[in-house]
Amino acid sequence: MAWQATLRVALAAAIVSVVGGAAQAGPTLDQIRQRGTLACGVHTGNAGMSLPDSRGVYQGLEVDLCRGLAAAIFNDVNKVRFIPLTASTRFTALGSGEIDVLIRGSTQTMLRDTTLGLRHAVTYFYDGHGFMVRNTLNVRQVRELNGATICLIQGTTNEQVTADYFRSINVPFTPVVFERTDQAAGALQAGRCDAFGTDASQLAATRSTMQTPGDWTILPERFSKEPYGAYIRRGDDEWFDLVRWYTYALIEAEELGVTSQNAEEMRRTSTNANVRRLLGATPELGQSIKLDPAWAYNAVRAIGNYGELYERTMGERTPVGLARAQNNLWTNGGLMYALPMR
């Protein structure tokens, strides 16, 4: 029948369109390849996450995530340009195209996800809002900060979380707002503020840079959920897939016991189908996101699996000194869980 023939032609055209489209990389990846570098938005200075060392070289969990992404694309961790951004400029920089991806302590919230023209790709760090005080205040609970002056960072969820909490318990406080974390830390140490309110990881990072870290206490209460994720612009599904599955690959590597030290041997000798797919011994995962079959192997070899990355930058043996807690694997009581890579 004529309508059946027409339907067959339409279906065939649709299949050709889908297959043909799958063969093309998204515009962001094309631009990155043409440029020869990844432009990655990072924090202006946050120990453990993104902080220049004495040579001016950025170090930390978030900057290494940028380096690993460059390794996945180019097999070269040096093909990345770090763009330091404040909390108030980060989303504008991403939306304008100044950066390709934002990996800078940015919490996923509903309004950010639905009103900014951006997409949260995947969570790479779970945090929560807290407060740090000087030991001499003898404060053990946040509600004891009645009438306190509290340092906050402009353009963060922490401003709203702090205001919401103190309003809920009918306790007054005075906010002192700064653009950058180092400014707030300086004001806190100088005595301009009684407390600093921000995410616990940033509190630990700030304390590690104080003249006498032991003089400060991070109060144990947490007042929010702060899932940090990589943000990209909306409208490029291929780039979304790449950033998302790159992060999952680091978590999957830890689940499978693949490390920066054994990745080469495991790629050559493992008979585990999941390991072989992840490390590119079989090509299908790389093909699906328009990368070399060895994309995940290159990333893990360069920066390690998620556990290696965390312990090297944020772990208990670092100056920041944060236990894995919710950032542990799901098999160890945490929230880190890679979706099936097959």
From TrEMBL:
All residue ranges annotated as the Solute-binding protein family 3/N-terminal domain in the record: 37-266
Stored Gene3D superfamilies: Periplasmic binding protein-like II
Stored CDD domains: PBP2_BztA
Homology family: Belongs to the bacterial solute-binding protein 3 family.
UniProt KW keywords: Signal, Transport
Protein known as: Amino acid ABC transporter substrate-binding protein
Record-linked Pfam families: SBP_bac_3
Native organism: Roseococcus pinisoli
Top-rank taxon, per record: Bacteria
